[in-house]
Design goal:
The chain is α/β, with parallel strands linked by helices. 51% of the residues lie in helices and 10% in strands.
């Protein structure tokens, strides 16, 4: 007997999660869905459901920090395909998502039928982009690709610390948020700088911000 397929739906807006769940059910009858509203919750869901068949990921949810969340999630879980579902619908954003490891990009403005079609295609091992985007050229620089590879070497905790650095938090504030000592955060920062090949917190933040994506003004979540 074939087991039901399992899809993780990651978006911080409950109404859009409900819409995605409807599209998923339409595309895959009998599917099991797991919902997450932050990147940390996505990572936890993937750890608990390592047999998941697909992750639908919003790149503007808390902790995702643009493409860095996608890159880290793919690096930590290479066996689970990820499809970006976002209100950022610029050609450059869609193509960069594929370059950073996504198996597809679904605009949030797409009708449920199109979302279902895209999910079906990816589950069958295909890559999916809106037709008008699929034939355009890639534009991810070699520098960004190198940083993406370095980003994957971080531990989950180091990744959280890096995201907090990009938000301008001090070591003391990060230690409070993560409920650890300030000395532990200093050790994490030292390791982050070494792994990313930079010499200062400022350089690390600038590098991380290169993977950022400006949130669309009409974004719900």
């Amino acid at each position: 007997m074939q087991l039901a397929q399992k899809i993780i739906i990651a978006d911080d807006h409950p109404l859009f999660r409900a819409a995605l769940k409807q599209a998923v059910s339409q595309a895959v009858p009998g599917v099991q869905t797991v919902e997450a509203d932050t990147l940390a919750a996505v990572q936890e869901a993937v750890e608990q459901h390592d047999d998941a068949d697909l992750v639908l990921l919003d790149i503007h949810m808390p902790g995702a920090n643009g493409f860095s969340g996608l890159v880290f999630l793919r690096g930590q879980n290479p066996g689970i395909p990820v499809v970006v579902v976002s209100g950022s619908e610029e050609v450059q954003v869609m193509k960069r998502a594929i370059e950073y490891g996504a198996s597809g990009f679904i605009p949030k403005s797409a009708p449920l039928e199109t979302i279902a079609e895209a999910i079906t295609a990816v589950l069958q091992g295909e890559e999916w982009l809106p037709q008008e985007i699929a034939d355009t050229e890639d534009d991810v620089s070699a520098e960004d690709q190198q940083f993406a590879r370095a980003l994957v070497s971080l531990t989950p905790q180091q990744f959280r610390v890096l995201n907090m650095l990009t938000e301008g938090l001090l070591n003391k504030q990060i230690a409070y948020e993560l409920n650890v000592s300030e000395a532990t955060i200093k050790a994490h920062v030292t390791a982050i700088l070494r792994k990313l090949g930079v010499h200062s917190r400022t350089q690390a933040v600038i590098a991380a911000q290169r993977l950022g994506v400006e949130a669309p003004k009409t974004e719900l979540g």
